[in-house]
Specification:
Ferric Hydroxamate Uptake Protein, Chain A, domain 1; single chain; mainly beta; 4% helix; four-stranded mixed sheet; 4 domains; 704 residues; 4 helices
Length: 704
């Protein structure tokens, strides 16, 4: 009830503020006097608009655009369908290794000429399917520009971990050269008890765990952008090294508190895990009123890990359980898109995309008690997919304030499994889409959308893996997995008020076929007898999902300036995710696995621009997450994650930021049944509690 009251109060406050007179919302004329003419349904932001926030990078600027949130695609199939809503100099980056947040963090704020925000469907051919798009236009200068960032993360029980990121750009005429280097290091220390109980909640054993884990990564990348005649050419590449580890120790005690044993868990990924990507595109006009772009992308790598659990119990032999895995993913994409503007108020795009995906997965388990290798299904699998997708779309400008985008993608694909799992099947899908946007007035936009989506298959779900941190939970590979198909209908309304405030409400309803969830994977011998059962990702038929999102950015100057305080801003984001699916074991309706019902985040910042100081805090919390295994219901409840920070923006070397993060610990409850969940007979309860050490972080970031 308390959460509902807070949400209601914030929404009511925002609605009240919308009655306050706006300050040049429509054109931002005071901040953008030198910007190019503004298109209908668009708004331009010059660097002056962001001065209050003292941005270091383009990412800092984008985060401060009212009513805009970065989208990275929704895990759909293909390169084109995963287009985000951010362009750089009118182009979409031809890469999948770097997320757009990383790309924007490499662009110095001083290099940004202006940022254009468009809220019309099909506003740019590079990002069709997005109702809201920003284009970051950089200055043309012969100077070397770049960013740098150094971070030290510290914890009371694992010391100091440094990270470094730097980028540089050099322009010579029509050619620019970009180089970036980064290193990242993270450590987390956790501790807490795990209680094993009978089905009636009587304590059998308590284990107290302490441990730390971490992830290290280094990357080197670069890009060249130039012109060959009238054609624009972009080339980019990146190589990335990564490593990770977990070390966990436990002491076992019986119900009387007597020490009965101990456990040591080790998990790591070898340092020689290397991933690389090369890509590029060429854009030219081969026919009148037509622009053609060809994108080529190739990425490959190695992802390996090993783990071991050594258990010693009083009066029993030492046991050692070990796992080894090595995956080699590969992807190659060629895409051609043609944009034709020879039909009045219509902008037509057509073309095709060809993709090849491959995963070579190897997995094994050894048990030292018997000295033999334990076999699991789909331990060694080769997955290959070829896909051809022709597409066409039309953006119809009905008037200055109304635009409709309609189109369809046809997919023809073939999937082959070999090794421990053998299968071959072909898919044919038609994926239509229609989006309409209406700029009701310069402050208000309405968007309606209807589309059919086909989810991207995760090839790792075809191969077996084991989670050693949760009782050696097996995720069995499933050769019968097919893509999830969704018919989605959604609406969005966005309203801006004052100069920097906005409120946005989004909702959608989805009808899903071949819903992906956890399913039992049964292993039988030659006589048809069940020899083992595991859990894996599979399809469980039809389901329904409905979602809602409320986002409010509320500047408080109108309230606080009369008392001499300016620069306070509050932001709220709330998500609601409902779902209903028929459980394949019980036949009863339930929500989908791993889909928390709600998530909320509050941010507040106080900018003292004259002093170069910024104070702020962030808080996030979500409802319990449920997962439905064949013989178990698992529930995880996370605490509130909170961060407080202070920034000093007038330091001679850049912006200095200090923050303290209270990591969200969690409670994990496992309800294990005798047989399957359908039996209703609770056999064991396992309650785990984990607390995490807070993180202290000091960051220096700057531009040159």
């Amino acid at each position: 009830m308390r959460v509902f009251e807070i949400r209601s109060a914030l929404l009511a406050t925002a609605m009240a503020v919308m009655t306050v007179p706006s300050q040049a919302v429509a054109n931002d004329s005071s901040a953008n006097a030198d910007a190019p003419p503004v298109r209908a349904g668009s708004r331009q932001f010059s660097p002056d608009f962001f001065t209050t926030y003292a941005p270091v990078t383009a990412l800092d600027m984008v985060k401060r655009i009212p009513g805009f949130s970065i989208s990275e695609g929704e895990g759909r199939r293909g390169f084109g369908e995963n287009a985000g809503n951010v362009l750089i100099d009118g182009d979409r980056p031809s890469t999948k290794s770097d997320d757009i947040f990383t790309t924007l963090s490499r662009i110095p704020a001083s290099q940004v000429e202006y940022i254009e925000l468009s809220e019309q469907a099909g506003a740019d051919t590079e990002t069709q399917g997005q109702g809201q798009v920003i284009n970051i236009v950089r200055k043309r200068t012969a100077k070397v520009n770049g960013t740098y960032e150094g971070t030290i993360v510290a914890g009371t029980r694992y010391g100091f971990q440094p990270s470094i990121n730097a980028s540089a750009t050099l322009r010579r005429g029509d050619t620019s050269y970009e180089m970036n280097v980064s290193s990242y290091s993270e450590r987390v220390y956790g501790f807490g008890p795990e209680d094993f109980k009978t089905g009636s909640a009587a304590l059998l054993e308590r284990r107290f765990y302490t441990g730390k884990g971490g992830h290290d990564q280094a990357a080197l990348g670069g890009a060249i952008k130039t012109k060959l005649g009238d054609a624009k050419v972009n080339l980019n590449g990146q190589v990335r090294w990564s490593d990770s580890f977990d070390i966990r120790q436990a002491d076992y005690f019986n119900r009387s508190g007597v020490d009965t044993g101990d456990e040591l868990l080790l998990r790591g990924g070898p340092v020689n895990d290397i991933n690389y990507e090369v890509g590029g595109d060429v854009e030219f006009s081969g026919l009148p009123e037509t622009n053609t772009k060809i994108v080529v992308l190739y990425q490959s790598g190695r992802e390996s890990s090993n783990s071991s659990i050594e258990t010693t119990r009083v009066g029993q032999p030492v046991t050692l359980f070990e796992t080894f895995s090595r995956n080699k993913p590969t992807e190659a994409v060629v895409r051609m898109q043609n944009d034709w503007r020879g039909l009045g108020r219509h902008a037509v795009q057509f073309g095709a995309e060809v993709a090849y995906n491959r995963l070579d997965a190897r997995f094994s388990v050894a048990n030292s008690v018997a000295g033999a290798v334990t076999s699991f299904p789909a331990s060694n699998v080769l997955v290959q997919e070829t896909r051809f997708e022709p597409f066409v779309s039309d953006v119809w400008t009905l008037g200055p304030s109304c635009t409709v985008e309609a189109g369809a993608i046809a997919e023809f694909s073939k999937l082959t499994l070999s090794g421990d799992s053998k299968a071959e099947r072909s898919f044919k899908f038609i994926k239509p889409r229609a989006i309409a946007t209406w700029t009701i007035d310069p402050q208000t936009t309405l968007e309606l959308r209807a589309e059919r989506q086909v989810a991207q298959l995760d090839f790792n779900e075809f191969a077996t893996s084991v989670d050693v941190t949760v009782g050696n939970q097996v995720d069995a590979g499933n050769a019968d997995l097919v893509p999830e198909k969704t018919n989605s209908f959604s609406g969005l309304i966005r309203h801006k008020f004052l100069e920097r405030g906005s409120v946005q409400l989004r909702g959608d309803y989805q009808m899903v076929n071949d819903t992906q969830d956890l399913v039992p994977i049964t292993i039988r011998d030659t006589n048809g007898n069940i020899t083992a059962q595991f859990d894996g990702t599979g399809n469980i038929g039809k389901s329904k999902r409905w979602n809602a999102e409320l986002e409010i950015t509320l500047p408080l100057d109108w309230l606080t300036k009369p008392v001499g305080i300016a620069g306070v801003e509050v932001k709220y984001i709330g998500h609601y995710h409902g779902s209903k699916v028929t459980d394949p074991l019980t036949g009863l309706n339930r929500r989908m696995s791993n889909r928390p019902l709600w998530h909320q985040q509050w941010d507040i910042r106080y900018d003292l621009a004259d002093l170069g100081l910024v104070y702020g805090a962030s808080f996030s919390v979500q409802e319990a997450n449920y997962a439905y295994f064949f013989n178990e219901i698992r529930r995880q409840r996370e605490g509130t994650r909170s961060t407080i920070f202070i920034e000093y923006t007038k330091f001679s070397l850049g912006t200095l930021r200090f923050e303290v993060t209270d990591m969200a610990g969690f409670h994990r409850d496992r309800f294990i049944y005798a047989g399957t969940r359908a039996s209703g007979s609770l056999d064991q309860i396992v309650n785990r509690k984990r607390s995490l050490d807070p993180l202290l972080q000091l960051t220096l970031s700057g531009k040159f």
